[in-house]
Write a structure and sequence with these properties.
This protein is mainly α and 159 residues long. It has helices spanning 2-18, 23-148, 153-158.
Length: 159
C-alpha cells in the first residue's frame, strides 16, 4: 500500500515539474524512479505470490499428514479392539481349560484310587486263591484217597 502512495506522490511531483522550467530533466529522473518502483513492486508481488504458494503447499502437506495420522490412529484403534477381543476370548478359553484340567485331574485321582483299590482287592483274591485252591485240592485228594481205602470202601457203596 505504501508503494501506491509513493506512486501517487511521484505522479503529483511529475505534474508539478511539467509546469516548471526544468521539467524535461526532472521528468526523466522521476520516470526512471517510477520505473524502478514499479519493478520493485512487481518483484515484491511475485515474491509474495511465491511465498503464498509455498504456504498453501505446506498447509496442504500438513493437512494430508494429519489425515494420514488420523487414519493410522483409527486403524490402530480397530486393531487394538480386535486384539482385546482375541485376548478376552483366549482368557475365557483359558478359564474353561483350567476348569477342565481341574475336573480331569480330580477324575484321574479318583481313577488312581479306584485302581489302587482294585489292585488291593486283586491281591487279596490272589492270596485267597493261592491259599484256598491248594487247600481245596488237598482236601479233595484226601477225600478221594479215603474212598479208595479198602476199609472205607463200604462207605463208598453206601453213599
Amino acid at each position: 500500500m505504501a508503494a501506491f502512495r509513493d506512486m501517487e506522490e511521484l505522479s503529483q511531483g511529475l505534474l508539478s515539474l511539467l509546469s516548471a522550467n526544468h521539467a524535461a530533466a526532472q521528468q526523466r529522473r522521476l520516470l526512471g524512479r517510477y520505473g524502478q518502483m514499479v519493478e520493485r513492486l512487481l518483484e515484491a508481488q511475485d515474491g509474495a505470490e511465491q511465498q503464498l504458494r509455498e504456504i498453501l503447499k505446506a498447509e496442504k502437506d500438513v493437512a494430508q499428514s494429519l489425515l494420514d495420522a488420523k487414519e493410522q490412529a483409527c486403524q490402530g484403534v480397530a486393531e487394538l479392539q480386535q486384539i482385546e477381543a482375541k485376548l478376552q476370548k483366549a482368557s475365557e478359553e483359558d478359564t474353561h481349560l483350567k476348569a477342565s484340567l481341574l475336573y480331569l485331574t480330580r477324575e484321574l485321582e479318583d481313577l488312581k484310587e479306584t485302581e489302587a483299590d482294585l489292585e488291593k482287592r486283586e491281591k487279596e483274591v490272589d492270596e485267597d486263591t493261592t491259599i484256598t485252591i491248594p487247600a481245596a485240592v488237598y482236601v479233595a485228594q484226601l477225600y478221594h484217597r479215603m474212598l479208595d481205602w479198602p476199609e472205607l470202601g463200604n462207605h463208598r457203596e453206601l453213599t
